[in-house]
């Protein structure tokens, strides 16, 4: 891909990310193009329809989560601390809005990679006996969904309390 095409794609994705976080997945394509500083034709050449744009956003978002999980593991004193840091990172307000907007969008390979990576860390924390053994990766994904995709249903202040209940130290 040419350098200018790559820059346009990156600007479109950044603008789309902001617009989708603010207005949801139905954010106007014209608004996204305007914020990216490109014409609507350029946007549609890169992403032929809204579905393609949302799929690219979802994939980018999941890859960012994988990177955050890797960083949490590198920074944490143990696997449980990394799991906890990742969960807290994932539900921060800006990311929660993105998760909500992209909840119905598929990025199956990227999502599978994230779940696989999180599962490795969960199993490590359970083996180290720093995390409860009766709570698994699927349970954590449900917890993430509840707090990231449905903000306000459960008050955010309860997340640390729930996470404390998973800590075996």
Number of domains: 2
Question: What is the β-strand count?
Answer: 0
Mean pLDDT: 88
Low-confidence stretches: none
Please write the string of helix (H) and strand (E) elements: HHHHHHHHH
C-alpha geometry:
elongated
Q: Sheet with the most strands?
A: none
CATH class of the largest domain: Mainly Alpha
**Count, helices:** 9
The CATH topology of the largest domain: Tetracycline Repressor, domain 2
User: How many angstroms separate the termini?
Assistant: 50 Å
Beta-strand content estimate = under 5%
Radius of gyration: 18 Å
* CATH architecture grouping of the largest domain: Orthogonal Bundle
Helix content: over 70%
Structural overview:
Helices cover 73% and strands 0% of the residues. It has two domains: 1-48, Arc Repressor Mutant, subunit A (Orthogonal Bundle); 56-169, Tetracycline Repressor, domain 2 (Orthogonal Bundle), CATH 1.10.357. The N and C termini lie far apart (50 Å). Helix 4 (50-75) runs parallel beside helix 7 (108-127), helix 5 packs antiparallel against helix 7 and helix 6 (93-102) crosses helix 8 (137-149). The protein has helices at 3-23, 29-36, 40-46, 50-75, 79-90, 93-102, 108-127, 137-149, 158-164. By secondary structure, the chain is mostly helical. The longest helix has 26 residues, at 50-75. The protein is elongated and about 55 Å long.
What key phrases describe this protein's structure?
single chain; 169 residues; mainly alpha; Arc Repressor Mutant, subunit A; Tetracycline Repressor, domain 2; 9 helices; 73% helix; elongated
């Amino acid at each position: 891909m040419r350098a200018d095409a790559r820059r346009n794609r990156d600007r479109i994705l950044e603008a789309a990310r902001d617009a989708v976080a603010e207005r949801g997945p139905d954010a106007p394509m014209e608004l996204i193009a305007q914020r990216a500083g490109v014409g609507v034709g350029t946007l549609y050449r890169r992403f032929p329809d809204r579905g393609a744009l949302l799929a690219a956003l979802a994939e980018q978002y999941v890859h960012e989560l994988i990177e955050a999980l890797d960083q949490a593991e590198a920074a944490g004193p143990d696997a449980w601390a990394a799991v906890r840091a990742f969960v807290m990172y994932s539900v921060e307000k800006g990311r929660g809005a993105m998760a909500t907007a992209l909840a119905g969008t598929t990025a199956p390979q990227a999502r599978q990679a994230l779940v696989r990576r999180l599962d490795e860390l969960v199993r490590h924390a359970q083996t180290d006996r720093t995390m409860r053994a009766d709570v698994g990766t699927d349970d954590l994904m449900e917890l993430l969904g509840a707090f990231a995709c449905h903000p306000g249903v459960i008050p955010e202040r309860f997340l640390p309390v729930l996470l404390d209940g998973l800590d075996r130290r």
